[in-house]
Amino acid sequence: MKNFSLKQCKTTEGFFADLQKMNAEVTMNAVYKRFKETGRLDALKCKRLDIKTHRFWDSDVAKWLEAAAYLLSRWEDPQIRAWYNEAVEDIIANQQDGGYFNSYFQVYEPENIFTNRDGHELYCAGHFFEAAVASKQYLNDDRLLRFADRFVDYIYERFVEKKDTAFTTPGHEEIELALFRLYELTSEEKYKELAQFFLNMRGCAEDPDVFAGSDYSQSHLPVRKQTEAKGHAVRALYLYTAMSDMAKLNEDEELKAACESLFDNIVSKKMYVTGATGSTYTGERFSSAYDLPNEKAYAETCAAIALVLFCDRMLRITGEAKYGHVIERCLYNGFLAGISLDGNSFFYTNPLEVSLEKARYNREQAPAAKEWLPIIERVEMFRCSCCPPNVCRFLELIPSYIWYENDGELILSQLISSNLQGENVEASIISDFPKSGKVCVKVNSHGKKLRLKIRIPEWCDKMFDNAEDGYLCFERAFDGEEIVIDFAMTIRKIYPNSLINDNAGKVALSYGPLILCAESVDNAVPLSSVRVGEVSGASVDLSLENQKFIKAIVPIEYLVDNKKLYGYEKPESKSACLNLIPYYAWGNREETSMKIWFVEK
Amino acid sequence: MKNFSLKQCKTTEGFFADLQKMNAEVTMNAVYKRFKETGRLDALKCKRLDIKTHRFWDSDVAKWLEAAAYLLSRWEDPQIRAWYNEAVEDIIANQQDGGYFNSYFQVYEPENIFTNRDGHELYCAGHFFEAAVASKQYLNDDRLLRFADRFVDYIYERFVEKKDTAFTTPGHEEIELALFRLYELTSEEKYKELAQFFLNMRGCAEDPDVFAGSDYSQSHLPVRKQTEAKGHAVRALYLYTAMSDMAKLNEDEELKAACESLFDNIVSKKMYVTGATGSTYTGERFSSAYDLPNEKAYAETCAAIALVLFCDRMLRITGEAKYGHVIERCLYNGFLAGISLDGNSFFYTNPLEVSLEKARYNREQAPAAKEWLPIIERVEMFRCSCCPPNVCRFLELIPSYIWYENDGELILSQLISSNLQGENVEASIISDFPKSGKVCVKVNSHGKKLRLKIRIPEWCDKMFDNAEDGYLCFERAFDGEEIVIDFAMTIRKIYPNSLINDNAGKVALSYGPLILCAESVDNAVPLSSVRVGEVSGASVDLSLENQKFIKAIVPIEYLVDNKKLYGYEKPESKSACLNLIPYYAWGNREETSMKIWFVEK
Question: Is the pTM here over 0.90, yes or no?
Fold first, then answer.
């Protein structure tokens, strides 16, 4: 099973095309400018700056370059091309003779190259390698590929041959999946070998814990023995992605089984309803099973992206619908909340609930008395600004998650308006998602018989005759005739597992793939006092001009504040309506409280 | 309105007498031994030790000395008396010529005396002054009183006359209430003057914020302008206690109004159902209104004690029943949870919920990835071990909260088995609290007409003909006849205010003054899946041999784990019984999950 390149599949009109347009017109520029201002681009010249550079700055730039390569293949922008070229020139001009490159270490700590497992050098390298693949594949620019080739040789020599580094495997995984991408592009064995070296060494006796603790960086067990998602969520998910790559490449059933266990562990015990993962601030890590606090959720935007990468790889192995379900959950919720509606600003953390009163109170405290809480307004830049450029490149990658194919089988996983120009097949989709469940699919298989499978979203409760394992199945030759389906979006209640303590007694409200939230700016009723009953009387207003903004109105009851902190009488309740918007759209107006999970009446 | 001394009022048999017996036989010894082992006693010799001493160690010892003075007045123990004498001798022997004493500063940082507002020097001094009052009042030992007198002169000279200290008012309040106790005992004006100096200067322009932030140490406003409880909870409540003392002494209506506002703010917005306060770990502080997380509650044992001190002072001013309600809430719950049933070990933090799975998972993490969570088993000692000796002295002080009197009026506030030998009145109480609501009160007013008021507990839903403002009122001469009352304890549901987000949709279960909790060691049903309906079918087992251990059995439903993390179908529910014990008794057996607030069906 494989997916299609961004050359082959492109969004057309609609929801995701608009997001990609925003990326081209706004986000790519905005992120570049903040990076320029903060010295991240100048750092590539590898000279001492007035500003102290940082050991993971290169990864920020590399992700932007990767995004630029995708973007420039579909959207000419002389300014972005010039910025791209300048950065690429700086990188290749300052690569060390041996092949090493890191704009921080080679300037400030040349003596410490590969001495600190948390130095992020291999992580930065990995992102450069991904940019190299994108440059070559989409712009036919092989400058970064040559840079990567020399850099890989250097890493190979140090880690595999000489073994003279202070650590054996990267503290922050990423390079492994990047090396598999290099291998996929070039078929050069050394890339695969190095990736496999890092994966097979991980958690072995020869890979002692020299950083923050073995769980934290997934070094507690050899990868084939890992079945519970642990530690830093982004690191973990990048690792699992590379593990899936290796499982597929080598048809390694043991590794595949580990990946399946990890996925099942995440989606059955450690994932927010938004697709976010990594619930704790401290360690930015997966917590114990069912520990999913809403207000103190870490839920990094990069983790939502990384979960999609992992699911994409698992789809390539198995073709199973469950991976598409999770990709959809992330796309419309946990990922998309990470960027503002205007494309200019970002969330790093993605709480499922915020209290404006608490946030304001906390803000007034002196540092010594300030609690950690997620921020409640998106910002243009973070000190550690990994998420914004990750959003840029991910927005470009979305079309690659729409279709998957193998011999005689074509899977439509994401119902996104797009055109596909495959080698043996063409297709187009007109999708009304997420405004309605209406989709029109046309496939032309040029007379060849094909098994077409269209994923039935998890939230769809319609019955279909041709449903099988989560897909609508059609088996025939296709000549471009319209297949029209209405998956029928309605407001539905989502029940959490009874072991999620933070959601006990509560329900979330959804509309199709969208998790809904209520903001206090739209509701006079205090959100904690809301009691949700039947939702059959709910209505959805799709007429708002900004198509990203859907408003749902749900009849509720709320408890009247009886002014007693504790009492023996049940507080009185009254009827009202709750106004909800898609979760991804929260925090785009004035400061507000926000809530996803409401007490069920 | 005044209360009675510990000479006048003593517990007899029953619940609190047993706790006092435990204090005499176990706790006082255990705390002393840990303090001895850790160098806290040797530190008083003011020589350099192998162990580094700490700037607030003196306060630990001073609280133990205060407790010892109370204890030795009712219970002869040669060992404790010898320890008491040795410590007193060390203190007076090492007081500086000028009057200053601090076993840390005079040895390790003599140049830094009164340079650091967070140095805890005045806090430690205050605790010595309280010990001095206790020694003089109960043992007729005036050694510490003479020590205190010289020390106060030194402080007065430095802070009031020379004003050559680096700060104006203490960073950690305590000395103010201690000075009022010295004044009450001796009627010497300088004590009152110094207390009033610190109180009146606090939060004024002359008292700049030189520590962790002005809210944190209640320096954001002059005390008469403070109406919202803010900052470090123990500091705040010690301050409010002293403010009440000053309001009463000077009949200062403005200050009294501030105290009433602060009390109302706490009990209507910032107090746990257990009487605990100070909900956030960071800053150990009061949070915003209704922010009362259960699992991450800080809820320091000292704060429960300090809230009783504040309520006691407000009772002395107003005689109002509401202060007695809160004292009762703290006594049986938030305070008492701070000590193990065997009297040997302590909680500093008092969460209202713990998840064993989460605690264990967190424990396995490396420090860099470890979240802050309250501990789940009491320990004998803390690095900052303020709570254990505070428990010791507070257990001795309990009889002083039973009765209050003024001209012609006698208030019975706490229904505790005890004998009172007042100047004009004698009384005895036989109370079955907290096993049942039965109380037998005998008062002898020697033929004099008296207005006797017996507080009707908040949880009592019986109607009484002679009820007035929360009291049962009797007005006549009393000659020792029995007044028998049954306040009728039953299992009742407590509803939280609808604005407490963490308790939305939930109820707590209570039996009389006891907040109940369920431990996973007693329940096969996962606590997060419990749904509480009607409690009329609940039963209480009072037959357990340890009278501190009451078991309640409440019929409930629970949700069956459907193995889905999120689903569109409501999980199935089944009937079961929930076993509950008093909250104060939690965490006394094996490691367990624990919960107070349950989803209401």
Answer: yes
Question: What is the Cα–Cα distance from A470 to A472, expressed in whole angstroms?
Answer: 7
Chain B residues whose beta carbon lies within 8 Å of the beta carbon of residue A288: 355, 357-358, 360-362
The contacts of residue A76 (CB under 8 Å, 6+ apart) are: none
pLDDT for residue A149 is more than 80: yes
Backbone angles phi, psi at B16, to 5 degrees: -80, -30
Amino acid at A153: D
Write out the two tokens for A38.
């903060």
The yes-or-no verdict on residue B213 having pLDDT over 70 is no
Mean pLDDT of A258-276: 98
The SS3 assignment for B355 reads coil
Q: What letter would DSSP give residue B528?
A: G
Q: Would you place residue B520 in the very low, low, confident or very high pLDDT band (cuts 50, 70, 90)?
A: very high
- pLDDT value at position A549? 72
Rounded to whole angstroms, the Cα distance separating A558 from A578 reads: 10
**Residue type, position B7, single letter:** K
DSSP string, B253-307: HHHHHHHHHHHHHIIIIIB-TTS-B--BTTTTEE-STT---STT----HHHHHHH
Burial bucket for residue B91 (CB in 10 Å: 0-12, 13-18, 19+) = buried
Give the pLDDT score at A496: 98
CB contact under 8 A, A494 and B361: no
What interface predicted TM-score (ipTM) does this complex get?
Answer: 0.96
Q: Using CA atoms, how far apart are residues B242 and B467, in angstroms rounded to an integer? A: 32
Per CB-CB distance under 8 Å, the chain A contacts of B281 are 371
Each domain of chain B, given as residue ranges in start order, spans 38-207, 212-397, 403-486, 491-600
Do residues B247 and B259 lie in contact, with contact meaning Cβ atoms separated by under 8 Å? Answer: yes
Statement: residue B544 has pLDDT above 80: no
Chain centroid to Cα A66, Å, comes to 15
Q: Which residues in chain A have Cβ-Cβ distances shorter than 8 Å to B570?
A: 495
Q: Where are the extended beta strands (E) located within A209-296?
A: 231-232, 285-286
Residue A364's closest chain B neighbor by CA?
A: B215
